[in-house]
Amino acid sequence: MKGNPWVRPYVLTSGRTTTRHRLFMHTLVSVPDFDPAFADRLPPEARSLYERAGTTAESVAELSAHCGVSLGVTRVLIGDMAARGRMIINPDTYSSPYDERLLRRVIHGLKEFA
Amino acid sequence: MGLKSSPDSLPPHMTSAKIVVAGGFGVGKTTLVGSVSEIPPVNTEAWMTQAAKSVDPETGATGKATTTVAMDFGRITLAEDLVLYLFGTPGQARFWPMWDDLSRGASAAVVLVDTRRLDTSFAAVNYFENDSDVPFIVAVNLFDGEQTHRLAEVRDALQLTAEVPLVACDARDRGSAVATLTAALTHTMRRTSVGTTPGVLATR
Q1: B21 and B71 in contact (C-beta within 8 Å)?
Q2: Do the Cβ atoms of B11 and A30 come within 8 Å?
Q3: Does pLDDT of A21 surpass 50?
Q4: Is A100 in contact with B189 (Cβ distance < 8 A)?
Q5: Angle between the N-to-C axes of helices A100-113 and B174-192, in degrees from 0 to 180, rounded to the nearest 10
Q6: Chain A contact present for B53, CB below 8 A
Q7: Residues of B numbered 22-51 whose beta carbons fall under 8 angstroms of chain A's beta carbons: which are they?
Q8: To probe the interface with A, which of B6, B14, B15, B68 has the most A CB atoms within 10 Å?
């Protein structure tokens, strides 16, 4: 955990532990228009998440791991920034993780990759 | 292909899929993830802090609970708009709250076993049999590239039902790891295809 060791985690989120958005660990998050001035105004944890997602679309788990912010806090902060239009939670292209088109594409991709 | 969605947003609509790699400590999960991942497996102490109500309904603990879990994950970019994530984490029962979170939204799961210590993977098999809707297969990791036990014996020992596919793999070998992952996805396709699904398979 690289985050601030002196702050209990949910102080960063004003005590909130949930978010309205459904965020799987593998859900991709990106920043539509990176705004350095906005980044400057953010607390350190939110800032590092915002900056990281501003470079490339990454999963919730990657953002959490690379920024050293716990998964729960990462979810809340992403939810906040998404609600303000500062982050995009990439919508699911497929209706279900069992969608046959998705499964076929992943199998095909893996075989190409092997 | 041709599934790219609306061009109205700036970043391409990249979407992601997930396969969970379960199994006991030291059965080769990190090796398997590493042999296919395009990034070195990220080993993170995923620091889970949630209200205990949502973390641990079984113990009835109140207040807040913190669980620290070492988790590995890898990533494979399969297409411009499609990324596959592999998640592996210890399968001990005490991590089950984490497992719910990990497996939610997964397309398939692979329970990796080591025949020298099958018992370390019992909890993971139990979890996917009883507590998860994610279709799973069991893969025997051949540590020295050799099959020391017949698969039928392993199936017996794990008391796997006939419908759970059991395969052998060499987690160190990319081709073998990929074959294991595709076997899991193929199993999901069979389990969930319209008309053959007994009951409702929750997807979320």
Answers
A1: no
A2: yes
A3: yes
A4: yes
A5: 170
A6: no
A7: 36, 42, 44-51
A8: B15
Q: Rounded to 5 degrees, what angle do the CA atoms B61, B62, B63 make? A: 130
In DSSP terms, A29 is beta-bridged to A58, A89
Closest Cβ–Cβ partner in A30, A65, A106 for B17: A106
Degrees, nearest 5: CA angle B63-B69-B72: 150
For B47-58, the pLDDT digits (tens) are 554 433 344 444
Residue B144, both tokens: 């020295």
State whether A64 and B201 contact (CB < 8 Å).
Answer: no
Say yes or no for a CB contact (<8 Å) between A106 and B78.
yes
Contact B137, B165 (CB under 8 A): yes
**Burial of residue B24, with CB atoms counted within 10 A of its CB: 0-12 exposed, 13-18 middle, 19 or more buried:** buried
Give the pLDDT confidence of A71-83 residue by residue, as tens digits.
Answer: 889 999 999 999 9
Beta strands in chain B (DSSP E): 15-23, 42-51, 64-79, 82-88, 108-113, 136-141, 166-169
pLDDT at residue A1, as a whole number: 45
Residue A16 is which amino acid? R
Q: Which domains does chain B have, with CATH numbers?
A: 15-43+71-193 (3.40.50.300)
Strand bridging mode A28-30 / B42-51: unpaired
pLDDT band at residue B145 using 50, 70 and 90 as cut-offs: low
How far apart are alpha carbons B201 and B204 in whole angstroms? 9
ipTM: 0.84
Q: Which residue in chain B is spatially nearest to A56 when comparing CA positions?
A: B11
pTM of the predicted protein model: 0.82
- As a whole number of Å, the CA-based R_g of chain B is 18
Supply the DSSP symbol for B91: -
- Phi/psi of residue B167, each to 5°? -130, 165
